[in-house]
Input
Amino acid sequence: MGIRSVAGGGRAPVVKVFTSNATYNATAGTRWCEVEMVGGGGGVVALNAPTGGVAISAGAASGSYIKLQCLPSEIDGQPVVVGQNPTGNSGTASSIGGTLIVAPGGSAPGTVSVSSASLPAGTVVNAAPTNPPSAATFTVGQVISLVSGQGASNVIVYLSAANAASGICVGSAGGSTPLGAGGWAANDYPPFARNPANGTGYGSGCGSAVCSNNASTQARSGQPGVVIIREYF
Output
């Protein structure tokens, strides 16, 4: 169903984990809530390398994260949206109540395609890093932790000879969140085709991809977001 409830004995909290869109209905007797949320992680597009050249992407950004405390009355009956992870695209935001609490999704990375035949040996091509998303926002409760999504570092293509088969490509890992680790970076010598690596957990970004000399890679997605509500009595 996309929601798991865990109740302990005595005054233990009830934990509701939303992995798909739903409506939050507070358990009777709840005095206050702790909300933990992360947006969906970014994915990486498919790449196609030119003849004698290379194509490379940076890693994708992770979703933004927030943890806060609030009264159940502030979010009871409100829609819960869980950030998604479209293949090859930016992640979408997680939210409660539309704009009450919002954790933006991570952005997809840019790519660079280089034909070594047009560049001298020793050329270094540096692609811009992936921009991190904005910080999460809230209009209810008191914040405990606020972590903006993590962008990926630059990627570098070094052409050591007149053919990309002698070059070096240095990619970057996907962004991580407090709830998930980003996919590893694709680094190697041509000729090769390294598909982007998926992250783990919730909201992490996909790792970089790289290929050379007419090879191609697959588009992949980041990790989906999550909304966790702990009810205290």
About this structure: The helical segments are 72-75. The chain has a mean pLDDT of 88. Residues 64 and 149 are 4 Å apart (CA to CA). The first strand starts at residue 3 and ends at 7.
